Amino acid sequence: QVQLVESGGGLVQAGGSLRLSCAASGLPLSTYAMGWFRQAPGKERENVARIIRSTGSTSYADSVKGRFTISRDNAKNTMYLDMNSVKPEDTAVYYCAVQFYGTGSYDYWGQGTQVTVSS
């Protein structure tokens, strides 16, 4: 059974940095990609970053490009999101998720971790 557990959230001042981790277990060989999403109160869920598990190829939302970096350690089955130069508008619950080959959508989600950026 796939399980995803996020950690690393917390309170950070604007301009600061934070690293989120997503520890995965039970990932099948059919795992295609992993991603970070966020959702702020009253807003739609946003795909912040994505990484292809086999190649390490990455993509980012325009809102975080140049500030956030997604990475993965396949040996540890862990994905990271390094958040730099954070802004108050980065405040949200951050979720990690995995996508399997052929599904076209994210199939499993973590429980989320709160990130709050103070001005």
Can you describe this structure?
The chain is mainly β. It contains no helices and 11 strands. It has strands at residues 3-7, 10-13, 18-25, 31-39, 46-52, 58-60, 68-73, 78-83, 92-100, 106-109, 113-118. Strands 2, 4, 5, 6, 9, 10 and 11 form a 7-stranded mixed sheet that branches. Strands 1-3-8-7 form a 4-stranded antiparallel sheet, with no helix packed on it. A hairpin with a 6-residue loop joins strand 4 (31-39) and strand 5 (46-52). The mean pLDDT is 95.
Mean pLDDT: 95
Distance between the termini: 40 Å
Unreliable runs: none
Tally the beta strands: 11
Decide which structural class fits the backbone: mainly beta
Number of H- or I-type helical stretches: 0
- Beta content comes to over 45%
Gross morphology: globular
User: H/E element string?
Assistant: EEEEEEEEEEE
Helicity range: under 10%
Radius of gyration over C-alpha positions, nearest whole angstrom: 14 Å
Main sheet: strands, sense, barrel: 7 strands, mixed
